[in-house]
Design goal:
5-stranded mixed β-sheet; alpha+beta; globular; single chain; Immunoglobulin-like
Length: 159
């Protein structure tokens, strides 16, 4: 049965949004959702209050250094994350104490990271973490064997 131009165009117009939606949901093999679009939207609506951090001498607390991604640049999702943990002198980092919280609402995303990451006393490596477009703040925490806690807020912008 021949299809006329009008009905063919109408059929295409009906199918196109579904095809675009399906294409938008395709993610690379192995990628996982670190933050959902709904969590990002809820976080953007929340009040943004900052707590004052105490001023301590260098080396008084362990550190969390971000090796990658580069924080000064816009990043494409999914993203690979590498952190380096630096304990206080004479201590070792306790990997089981690692915690991660998303945004001002403090959504605990620790288990999502643990499922896909390698976490050791030296640091953390995770591949293909998906975040929606926009700006994201993630608070990272870890303790060392002297019960000293490193806390680091990381801000990334996803294209």
């Amino acid at each position: 049965m021949p299809i006329n131009r009008a009905s063919g165009a109408a059929s295409l117009a009906l199918l196109l949004p579904a095809a675009l939606l399906a294409a938008a949901s395709i993610r690379p093999a192995g990628a996982f959702v670190l933050v959902t679009p709904q969590e990002a939207a809820n976080n953007a609506k929340a009040p943004h209050l900052r707590a004052l951090e105490p001023s301590l001498p260098p080396g008084a607390l362990p550190r969390i250094d971000v090796v990658s991604p580069p924080l000064a640049a816009d990043i494409r999702s999914p993203v690979d994350i590498r952190l380096k943990f630096v304990p206080t002198k004479g201590a070792v980092i306790l990997p089981d104490t690692f915690r991660a919280y998303y945004g001002w609402l403090g959504i605990d995303i620790t288990d999502r990271i643990r499922e896909h990451a390698s976490i050791t006393a030296a640091g953390l490596t995770v591949k293909d973490a998906e975040l929606p477009s926009g700006s994201h703040d993630i608070t990272l925490e870890i303790k060392d064997s002297h019960d000293q806690e490193a806390k680091r807020e990381v801000s990334v912008t996803i294209e």
